Amino acid sequence: MDVLHLIPTTAKPSFFELIAMDALRKGIYPALQYCMLVLTQHYPDIVGSTIKYTDEIYFILHGLLQNHYLRAEGASFAESFYGLKRSLISKDGDSSVGMSRYQRWSSFLFLVVFPYVDEKAQKFRNHLQSQVNRTLHWTEKLFVKALPITRAICAGVNLLYQALYLLELIEPCSPWLHLLGLKIQRVTFADYQASQAAKEATDKLVKTKGIFRRITHAIGKGLAFSVPILLFVLSFMQWWYANDNTGKIKDVIIPPPPKPGTVSKTGVSLPSDNRICPLCRNLRENPTVLAASGFVFCYECIHKHVNDHERCPVTHARASIDMLISIHNS
Q1: How far is CA 317 from CA 38, 94, 311, in A?
Q2: Model-level pTM greater than 0.85?
């Protein structure tokens, strides 16, 4: 933000800036998933039981992060990162007026609450589709069919707005911004100075508030500092492992075989006979290995457990249905 004098004179951001902003926004959740995965591998007894609440943890942290930026910067985290802000759609072209309280909380709903509801609805739909042993109620069948249609309509309207924005026929780049009477603009140096003054005033005001307000403000500032660093580290790691040079190194250096998964103290015990399923304690039927830990179960047993708990029953490592691999005897 110290190089605002290099920002182009036009206030309207380019379409490529909006694409980069959207990519950054979508990278926050994978960053949290990666952190949870690392913590689970190192502290399975402590973190393992919280894996199934990853969406809720993300909802709380994401809410604190976006609330901090909406209050301090008048923009979302991704918008502020690229030197953008939200301003009113004004006929006279005046962009100095910030968001109202209603627009700020409505922005919070579109940034945090609605994506969370959409994610949970999609997971619930997948859960209903996996119910092969019971007949769905007509309301559940309607939900399974209506959700993808609704999401497709929303995506189509959003794509239409982006096309109209690219052709410079409208000011807001999304229907949600248009609904709130807002548009995205570049931050000017005057905006930056006003933002710094507002931050100092907010810090002084928060000190006079209650303990809850001070804690949430401190967490928001901490996330505002740490999330960009975490996203940069993850992006660097993705680039490094995708680089052709690392492929040459892998061809030369053969890594040692992975260590067997650590049995959690609160996980199910392993039977002495390796032909027995650790869950049902019977001879395995349709043996299936869980890639997250390497242990083998009956397909029906492990499918139900992972679908309900999203973790390995033995190690408590994070797991998903995609990690189930059927073993076929030759």
Answers
A1: 10, 53, 5
A2: no
